[in-house]
Design brief:
The chain is of the alpha/beta class. The chain has a single domain, classed as Transcription Regulator spoIIAA. About 35% of the residues lie in helices and about 20% in strands. The chain has a five-stranded mixed sheet with strand order 1-2-3-4-5, sandwiched between helices. Helix 2 links the parallel strand 3 and strand 4. The longest helix is centred in the N-terminal third of the chain and has 15 residues. The protein starts with 18 loop residues before the first strand and ends in an 8-residue tail after the last helix.
Length: about 140
């Protein structure tokens, strides 16, 4: 993907926000979470929903939750809301976790996600997640 084809990120760091976002070379996003405070979750929810408004292509996103020890109920609630937005049908999402508590919460999010929506995989190894993301993309509509 050339630089002129890469979708603008429309994200910038803010005080007190415990996550960062960078653009992937394939046009998707890498999101690294350092905390899951209500302030972080609210900021992420707003960013994620606004980013879906102009979703127009198949996208690969990587969520790195390896520094998170547990997901609060709000994280599950917000993720289910975003995952059930009609625009997520264009997204393949790899989630990196480092413990069973977070894995179980991500499994719950996956179970509450509408079939035909986001294609989600859960991994503990970055190389496995990247290999899964690199598979050819197809529309799930």
């Amino acid at each position: 993907m050339s630089d002129d084809e890469i979708k603008p990120l429309h994200w910038s760091p803010a005080n007190g926000i415990g996550y960062k976002v960078t653009r992937r070379t394939d046009g998707g996003m890498n999101l690294i979470f350092l905390d899951v405070s209500l302030q972080t979750l609210s900021h992420w929810r707003e960013f994620a929903l606004s980013h879906l408004l102009d979703s127009d292509r198949l996208t690969r996103n990587l969520y790195d939750l390896r520094q998170i020890k547990a997901l609060p109920p709000e994280a599950v609630e917000y993720a289910v809301e975003v995952n059930n937005d009609p625009s997520v049908r264009n997204i393949r999402l790899a989630v990196l976790v480092s413990n069973d508590r977070v894995r179980e919460s991500v499994d719950e999010i996956s179970a509450l996600t509408t079939p035909g929506g986001v294609e989600m995989g859960i991994f503990s190894d970055l190389q496995e997640a990247e290999a899964w993301l690199d598979r050819p993309l197809t529309f799930t509509v």
